[in-house]
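ok so I'm stuck.
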Amino acid sequence: MRGTDWCRSSAGAALVLATSSDAEHPAESVADGSSKTFWTTTGMFPQELIIGFPKCVKISKVAIQCYLVRTLRIERSTSKDPVGFEQCVEKDLQHREGQLQMEEFPLPEFQATYLRFIIKSAFDHFVSVHRVMAEGTAENT
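replied:
not stuck anymore, here's the structure
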């Protein structure tokens, strides 16, 4: 059975932090479920964004749609506040000119109340993040 995408604003996700801001391409775009909208960074690295979930969830797969990202780290927190992050995965992504990067990270199931996506380096001065996804189920509380 396919789980809920907890990074979508329609599932109650909230953007907690983004390290750069652009009025034309706001960070909230990563949680709207569309690949046509996106968040763009301002050119210095690292850049990060933190997504908060409405409750503690069990995540089994994380994915990202982006462009020009070279090195990505994903971290999780189970704290009530966005602190105490632990690394889940770090990966160098492949760049294909003119194509979105679609990376899936099947991970051992883990609990999270927040996910932090850290763009450590890029293939250019600016990158775009179109979607972040975290598939899973709600924890019994």
